[in-house]
Recover the amino acids of this structure.
């Protein structure tokens, strides 16, 4: 594979619709490329993803949908954490991440900080602009996705998707 790929948790359909609207609104406001809502479990892997599919097919059978608390809306280091929802950790997410780290950390070290981005880029955001933004208190994630993630967001492309609990992905 000529460019890196990432592993995402994807929200269930109802949460995805609500989050996609937030992302579209912010991306239009900041002239940023639109992308699908996701929580990156492990990013920018440079290995053939197909070789990892058997591990993940087996892995997702042991986990059902995961509900996580949203701790707040934040700004951070551009371009990848410019505007995001900080997501709280729980035991289930910790176990998922531990498995991913064990399996992929020999390929690349990844510093996990659970968040769901709302816009990417070098954005100029006034903190007071964020005070009245409504966002969900919890988000339920129902699938694991493999996405080609070259530097250009408009070129991101789904590689494969597995429903948590072994179910069909949305």
């Amino acid at each position: 594979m000529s460019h890196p790929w990432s592993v995402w948790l994807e929200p269930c359909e109802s949460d995805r619709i609500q989050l996609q609207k937030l992302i579209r609104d912010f991306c239009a406001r900041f002239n940023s490329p639109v992308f699908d809502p996701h929580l990156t479990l492990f990013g920018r892997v440079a290995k053939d993803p197909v070789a990892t599919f058997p591990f993940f097919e087996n892995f997702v059978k042991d986990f059902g949908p995961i509900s996580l608390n949203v701790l707040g809306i934040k700004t951070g280091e551009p371009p990848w954490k410019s505007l995001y929802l900080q997501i709280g950790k729980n035991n289930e997410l910790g176990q998922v991440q531990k498995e991913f780290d064990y399996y992929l950390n020999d390929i690349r070290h990844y510093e996990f900080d659970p968040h769901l981005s709302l816009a990417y880029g070098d954005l100029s955001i006034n903190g007071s602009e964020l005070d009245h933004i409504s966002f969900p208190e919890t988000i339920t994630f129902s699938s694991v996705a493999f996405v080609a993630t070259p530097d250009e967001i408009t070129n991101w492309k789904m590689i494969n998707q597995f429903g948590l609990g072994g179910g069909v992905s949305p």
Q: What stands out?
A: The chain has three helices and seven strands. Residues 8 and 59 are 14 Å apart (CA to CA).
